[in-house]
Amino acid sequence: MNLDNCPRCGKLFAKNFRDVCPVCIRDIDKEYQLCADYLREFKGAIISELSDQTGVSIKQITKFIREGRISMVNAPNMSYPCESCGTLIKDSHLCDNCRNRLTKSINEISERKSASSSEDKNAEISYRGINKYKDKF
Fold it and tell me: Which of 73, 79, 123, 136 could form a cystine bridge with 88, CB 3.0-4.6 A?
């Protein structure tokens, strides 16, 4: 049996398919139901309004969206924060600016890595050349 502490309430529980205890699962399901009921009545709600009216945290609402439990189709004004900068977005985990910045950083790192590996290769070749002739000096 795999025991763990619930990250939400701290209680010890037998870990199964979910990472939280059964009591917290019920609480999360109640929070989802509150959000779903509110969105049925007020389709144009934004995430901060939904959080204020239901008492459910923006972080939890974002989880519901990412899990597909809250559909962006049924809530056209709904958006959630970018994981890097917090700008409100409608899809993915990062906004366009953060995604472009990350891509640029990755490209710079790979360019530096390829440049340094070619320098290492050149140094290795010249070192091998010296080894061939070191007995003759």
Answer: 79
Please give the torsion angle defined by the CA atoms of residues 129, 134, 135 and 137, in that order, rounded to the nearest 10 degrees: 130
**What CA–CA distance (Å, rounded) separates 115 from 122?**
11
Q: Which helix H or strand E contains 134, and what residues bound it?
A: none
- Residue 132 CA to residue 54 CA, distance in Å, equals 78
Residue 50 in contact with residue 56, Cβ under 8 Å? yes
Helices H / strands E in the chain, number of each:
4, 4
Each residue's pLDDT tens digit, 104-125: 999 999 888 887 766 656 555 5
Location of structure tokens 């059964």: 22
Q: Which two tokens stand for residue 72?
A: 């962006």
Q: For residue 131, give both structure tokens.
A: 């080894």
How is residue 27 written in tokens?
């609480």
How much is the mean pLDDT over the chain?
A: 85
